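Sequence only, no structure available. Ideas?
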Amino acid sequence: MKIISYGEFPRLILCIAVCQMAGIVGSIFTAESVTTWYITLEKPGFAPPGWVISAVWISLYTLMGVSLFLIWRQDWGSDREKEGNKRIAIAAFALQLLVNAAWSWAFFGLQSPPAGFATIIILWLLILFTARLFWPISRPAAWLLFPYILWVSFAAFLNFSLWRLNP
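Reply:
I predicted one. Tokens follow.
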């Protein structure tokens, strides 16, 4: 794996910033509902405190940004097939990032655990699909999505539990 060059640093920062922006967009839907609607919900004993959730997401968005950067930096020159595969992988990444932000709208904005659960299942599948597309381009980029899919798996279980506890 090649080391990042000084000239690539702005691209790395941009990739991380784009991913962090998904979290910021999601927080727009979350901010008010967390202090009004969410606190009224019955929660399972394994529900982590808000500060843990925030710290995990900040870390995950950073890892996602590094993953995106590792794909974006690949340059196959005139190999159209590989460049096309890279564009498809980046498009899949963008789609899962949009669905990531949409979960906050579905769960907190609509105040609907069922809508949140449906959205998070789609997100989980898109993360898996994206990692599969990343694998032949950059295995480290694919591996960097592993903590993300693990957390989304946990979040899906939490979302489902909240739905069951608060019909």
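DSSP finds six helices and no strands in the chain.
Hope that gets you unstuck.
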